[in-house]
Design goal:
Elements (H helix, E strand, L loop, with lengths): L1 E5 L3 H14 L4 E6 L2 H13 L7 E5 L1 E2 L2 E2 L1 H7 L5 E5 L5 H5 L5 E4 L4 H17 L2 H14 L10 E6 L2 E6 L3 E7 L1 E6 L4 E3 L5 H7 L5 E3 L4 E4 L3 E6 L5 E5 L6 E4 L1 H13 L1
Parallel strand pairs: 1-2, 1-3, 3-6, 6-7
Antiparallel strand pairs: 4-5, 8-9, 10-11, 10-14, 11-12, 13-14, 15-16, 16-17
Helix pairs in contact: 2-3
Length: about 260
């Protein structure tokens, strides 16, 4: 059995891959693919090379460049999909499908096992037409916005990978690695590649790129002062209790963003 993993968060992808190997040790795992573009390219390459489609797709919904439903509208997969996401707003629509399971992050091993059991039952039934019809109906019914921002992030804490909700992120800072500072003052390591990547993923109504090193949450800001040079000095709320500098060029944009709230 070939399982294709589509997931844009490296930590989550590693965890899922480990669980898949534990639960389906004989399966061949492809991926992870982190974007709509890379997933479509993967299918196009396999089909052009007369290589088989996967037997099962384990797919996040929100990817780095859009939503995974855009993949399935374009390539029309012939296999079941287990959807994973941090956004439970999709649950009602996804749950109505008998051949597609839906797992809310963080994913528990027991839930993934149940999803695999469901796949094996479907496989034994052999009714692929039923699945394709349901997927077609789901894609027709979905009214998903083209841009969906992340509201939960992952980071290392001790030996665990933990979720951090948007409202608990004070700011992200680049210092060789990308660090996540929580509202209660913790400094956690992340696996995000760059602040440019995070700036694309975060809601611009909540986060702003303060400078080349930091992306800050508006809710963490206690206030700011104007510097004689034209820069702004932003003070963060306790217990974070840090100061960030806004460049002269970004000062007007920051003031407008901060006032809009």
């Amino acid at each position: 059995m070939m399982i294709l993993l589509i997931e844009d968060e490296l930590l989550v992808a590693k965890t899922l891959a480990r669980l898949v190997r534990q639960l389906e040790p004989e399966a061949h795992l492809e991926g992870p693919l982190e974007s709509v573009r890379s997933a479509v390219a993967w299918f196009e390459h396999h089909r052009a090379s007369d290589l088989p489609d996967p037997d099962l797709i384990l797919s996040d919904i929100q990817l780095s460049d859009g939503v995974s439903f855009d993949i399935y509208r374009e390539i029309n997969p012939q296999c079941p999909i287990i959807f994973t996401t941090a956004y439970d707003e999709y649950a009602i629509r996804a749950f109505k499908l008998n051949s597609i399971d839906y797992l809310l992050k963080p994913i528990e091993p027991e839930e993934l096992k149940t999803a695999f059991d469901k796949y094996h039952r479907w496989k034994q039934g052999g009714n692929s037409t039923h699945f394709r019809d349901q997927l077609r109906d789901l894609l027709a019914d979905m009214s998903v916005p083209s841009k969906k921002y992340k509201h939960r992030f992952t980071a290392h804490y001790l030996r665990n990978i933990v979720p951090v909700n948007e409202n608990n992120v004070a700011y992200f800072c680049r210092d060789e690695l990308i660090y996540l500072y929580t509202m209660d003052g913790q400094k956690l390591v992340t696996d995000y590649g760059s602040l440019d990547e995070l700036e694309e993923l975060t809601d611009p109504a909540v986060f702003i790129r303060a400078n080349r090193q930091c992306l800050v949450n508006q809710n963490a800001i206690a206030g700011y002062q104007s510097h004689y040079s034209g820069k702004l000095v932003v003070t963060l709320k306790k217990p974070v209790d840090s100061e960030l500098t806004i460049s002269k060029e970004k000062a007007a944009v920051f003031r407008e963003w901060f006032e809009q709230g």
